[in-house]
Structure formats: C-alpha cells, structure tokens
Amino acid sequence: MPTILVADDDANIRELVCLFLKNDGFTTVEAADGKQALAVYASTPVDLVVLDIMMPIMDGWALCKELRRASPDLPLLMLTARGETWEKVKGFELGTDDYLTKPFDPLELTVRVRALLKRYRIGSTQTIQLGKLILDKQTYKITNGTESLALPLKEFELLYKLAGTPGQVYTREQLIDQIWGIDYAGDDRTIDVHIKRLRERFMASTDFRIETVRGLGYRLEVCG
C-alpha cells in the first residue's frame, strides 16, 4: 500500500490522521515541522504528503514549494485552519493538489487521499480515456472509435494535463510552468486562448468539459 507522509505540528492531529489512514490500509510516516518533513521525504519513499500550513521552522507554504520543486508528480493535500480563498489560491500556485479545512472528518481525508492517488496513477500513464475518447501521448493523437484527431502540440499537452487529473484545479501559472516551461516570457493569458480553442474543438463532446474556476483557474470534469 502507498506510504503517506503526515506533516503537522499538532501531535494529536498527526495521531488521528495516521490512525485513520492506517485503518484504511495505508502506511504512514510523520513529521512535526516542514524541515523534518523534508528530511523524512529524503530518506523514505513517499507516495503522498498531507501537510499543515501553520508549522514552526518551515511552514506549509515553504514545504509545499520545496516538495513540488523536488517532485512535480508528488500528490500534496494541504490542511488549513481557515480555508479562505486567498489561502487556496496561494496553495494552488505553490503546487498543492487539494485542500481540507480544519476541523475535518478523518473519513473525508482518507477519501481525498485515495482520490488523489487515483488521479496521479491515471496521470502517469501514456494513454488517458475520457468516455469514448482516448488521448495517446506517444502519438499526440486523440481517437474516437475509428476516427483520429491530431491536435497542435500545446493544445494536446494542455488537454492531456487536465485530463490526467480530473477535477484538479490548475492555475494559469501552473499550466504555463508545466507545459510552456518556467522560462516562458509570454503572457499567461495564452492559457485562456488555448482553453477557448479546446472548448470549440470539443463543443459537441459529451465525454468531458473544461470548467473555469473563478479566481483560481481551470479543471476538467468527466461527464456521465
């Protein structure tokens, strides 16, 4: 089973989270602050990290940034005491995948952990299926039965990124960095242009839709 790193300076919360994760079949390792979490991550194979924002020595913001820099494909679930919009925006910009506001139901946390692990397993494959559509990263083509469609490279990569983790919100900055590269000097509104083109291409599709998340970015939702 996957190993989950739980980073929180509250020992009671760590104990509770680890208890429920273990009961659900996961292996857990713990850290009381961000610096300790990085040390555990460096010495232990970890499949997902649950991290609190407010921690001593190194807070969750800095930890999230360091973990994302070290491993772009590591699922991150951030815990926050308030859950305000600005916190969510900052977290998504730094690379977190999902949020849970304290106090939370431990059962919901385990469900979110399983969902994130499932998304990343889908995202790591070379083909992704959206209803009747199959996205093949090796050929950069989309097939629908006997029909085949070749998209411009960046359009395909954008759609593939969104489809790899359905329901995951990506900011424009994240998509620019991960698809165009951190050295891209253009306007991040190029994302809006490519999203518009994808929506126009698949306007009649009943397999998926690309949603705008106000104040945050974009996500893909599978239909049906």
Mind explaining what this structure looks like?
This protein has 224 residues and is of the alpha/beta class. Helices cover 42% and strands 23% of the residues. The protein is built from 8 helices and 11 strands. The strands form 3 sheets. Strands 2-1-3-4-5 form a 5-stranded parallel beta sheet, with helices on both faces. Strands 6-7-8-9 form a 4-stranded antiparallel beta sheet, with helices on one face. A two-stranded antiparallel ribbon has the order 10-11. Helix 1 links the parallel strand 1 (3-7) and strand 2. Helix 2 (34-43) packs parallel to helix 3. The chain is globular. The two termini are 30 Å apart.
Question: What topology does this entry show?
Answer:
Elements: E1 3-7, H1 11-23, E2 27-31, H2 34-43, E3 48-52, H3 60-70, E4 76-80, H4 85-94, E5 98-101, H5 106-123, E6 127-130, E7 133-136, E8 141-144, E9 147-150, H6 153-164, H7 172-180, H8 190-201, E10 208-213, E11 217-222
Parallel strand pairs: 1-2, 1-3, 3-4, 4-5
Antiparallel strand pairs: 6-7, 7-8, 8-9, 10-11
Helix pairs in contact: 1-5, 2-3, 5-6, 6-8
What attributes does this structure have?
224 residues, alpha/beta, 5-stranded parallel sheet, 4-stranded antiparallel sheet, 11 strands, 23% strand
